[in-house]
Amino acid sequence: MELTLSRVTKKFGKKTALDSISVTLREGVCGILGANGSGKSTLMRILATVMRPTDGSILLDGKDIFQLDADYRTLIGYLPQQVGYYRNFSAERFLHYMASLKGLTKAQANKKVEEMLQWVGMEQHRHEKIGKYSGGMKQRIGIAQALLNDPKILIVDEPTAGLDPKERIRFRNLLAATATNRIVLLSTHIVSDLEYLANNIMIIKDGHFVQMDTPTALLKAMNGNVWTVATTNELLADYQQNYKVGNIIRRENGIVVRLLADEKPSRQAVKAVPNLEDLYLYHFDDLNETRPISLHQN
Amino acid sequence: MKELVRFELYKLFSQKGIYITAAILLFLIIFFHQVMPGPDASAYSQYKKWEGPVTEQKLQEAKQLAEQGSGRESEVYQDLDLVANFQLDKANILKEVTDKLSKLNDLDSDASRQLQLEKKLLSTIHFTDYYYQWPVEQMQDYINTFGFIFLGTLILIGLSSLFTRETASGVDQYILSTQHGRKTIVHAKLVAALIFVLACALLSIGFDVVYWIIRAGNYGWLANIHSIPKYYNSPYTMNMLSFFLLKTAVHVFAGLMLAICVVFISLLSKNSFFSFICSGFVFAFPFMAEEFVIVPGWLAKVFQFSYVTAMRVDNWFTDFHAVTIFGYPLLLPIAATIVLLLVSALFTMMLYKINEQKQIKP
């Protein structure tokens, strides 16, 4: 199964939210990494068919998803960024409602709803009104509804935003368990989510496609660009002004700064193994954008 | 599909607003009914003996009693006299129509065809019997006075948020991305809306019938509609039972058509308040305009096809009104029904089309 995006563009008036995105998505988890407002949600909405592109096309195994219409929607599960619910519905009722929207028969719905409630650990709260749920509980119901129809394409938009660390880990585990044999699109600006889940990472910036590769390949390209430097309070400001600075760790004998640089930034600097936070910093640290560095290409 | 309709009905009927509104309206209706004077159920015994064909003997007897007594006897005499005079009045009207027809040179003209139709209808009227009809008169009058307000208000409150609720709650994103979230959902919502209207109409009419039967008795179904002053000039002949059933059917039909319009407005609206205001305008404007300002003739004619006029029913049946379409006269109730059906069919088609293309706002 292959989703091929070809020059997908979305404009809102004069603003271009997505600018000619072309990419092919295959089975596995594809993390879409981008800052707020980069166009991630717009792309997810278009893939979920709740929004139409201004230009370009999206083909599923060669067929236009908007032509496929209901046949395509049968294959997808979508968890939007802002989860919406009827406050007076219980989790069980809401899932049954979604099951009927997804075309499940009553018998299938009964089985699937039961299964999903257990899977997301909500069976104890099934009769409670959703209006009384915490953010994490709502999110769990959100992912449960997205998976009711056993979708071949799962689209989850910022699923861990607003969750506490415990809920986030739980959610990541839920998602990891479902990722086999389907295309999972996960948009986030929380890099740790991708570290655990993504087979591929697509980077979008200001509506433009930047690159897509495996996390290993993306990080390999940053080898030799990430440094840690032991420094003092007085010199910290200089580093912040001249480099893209990541973590700043305060220790008893001074400060250790993690930063990005093409060349060794100082004699004390030590090469560090790049991680996804460094990748994010490289692409989305707008405060220091005046000093770009070049990554090694494979 | 059945499951979706069930969920849509659940969403509709779990709105507290409809119950509060219904309770307030019923309270007001009972209040206004209670303050209205009128005979109770026991009064029938005094009218019973006068029921049936109006004869010269009955008329003379009633006249004598009216001269001796007062109040009820006088009322009976007036009613009997109205029946007795009707044939004379009908003959005069028929003559008038015939005269008009004879003055027209072209018998194939629109005016001629309308007059021929009126003549045909008038000649079928048969009104010779008297029946005590006060309870049933009140029942059918309810539709024109309170019933349309009750049903219209509940339609506005219940249905103006049918689609906007999904947008406001954010559930539209889920719905639109599902297999049945584009077409079947519209179908389910429409079916649910129509069931809602039927339930509200049943409550309204049921309440009306039960109230008047308890208060004034179950009398008058066989009376001719011409015994009610409002319908004295009506070209239609039927008894109160037939007319009540017809009036209820037209009232409910108009309610269903209004519901489709309100659902359509709801789909186009950004929020429930805007949807409610727009729907309220469509429903109430013709009524308000005719009640409070002098509307130009052409607008009054347009208002004959409005939802509120259809829901009140009376204006369609009190006098002869016909519309000429392609050279042939159509009675107003038929023409207006066709217009409302066509408009509703258009709204329904657009509902499907728009929801199919609908995108969520960024």
Short description:
By secondary structure, chain A is an alpha/beta fold.
Account of the 3D structure:
The complex is a heterodimer of chains A (298) and B (362). With 298 residues, chain A is of the alpha/beta class. Chain A has 2 domains: 2-219, 3-Layer(aba) Sandwich (Rossmann fold); 222-288, no CATH class. Chain A is 34% helix and 29% strand. Chain A has 11 helices and 14 strands. Chain A has a 6-stranded mixed sheet, with helices on both faces. A 4-stranded antiparallel sheet of chain A has the order 2-1-4-5. In chain A, strand 4 and strand 5 form a beta hairpin. In chain A, helix 6 packs parallel to helix 7 (165-178). The longest helix of chain A is centred in the middle third of the chain and has 14 residues, at 106-119. Residues 287-298 of chain A have low confidence and may be disordered. By secondary structure, chain B is mostly helical. Chain B has 2 domains: 2-39 and 136-357, no CATH class; 52-130. Helix content of chain B is 72%, strand content 3%. Chain B is built from 16 helices and 4 strands. Chain B has helices at residues 2-13, 16-35, 44-48, 56-68, 72-103, 110-124, 134-159, 164-169, 172-176, 184-216, 240-268, 272-292, 297-303, 307-312, 314-317, 332-357, and strands at 52-53, 129-130, 322-325, 328-331. In chain B, the strands form 2 sheets. A two-stranded antiparallel ribbon of chain B has the order 1-2. In chain B, strand 3 (322-325) and strand 4 form a beta hairpin. Chain B starts with a helix and ends in a 5-residue tail after the last helix. Chain A binds chain B through residues 12, 17, 42, 45, 48-52, 69-70, 73-74, 76, 78, 80, 82-88, 93, 96-98, 100-103, 106, 109, 145, 149, and chain B through 3-4, 7, 10-11, 14, 169-183, 185, 357, 359-360, 362. Chain B: Keywords: Membrane, Transmembrane, Transmembrane helix. Chain B: The chain crosses the membrane at residues 12-32, 142-163, 190-214, 240-265, 272-289, 330-352. Chain A: Keywords: ATP-binding, Nucleotide-binding, Transport. Chain A: One of its GO terms (molecular function) is ATP hydrolysis activity. Chain A: This is ABC transporter ATP-binding protein.
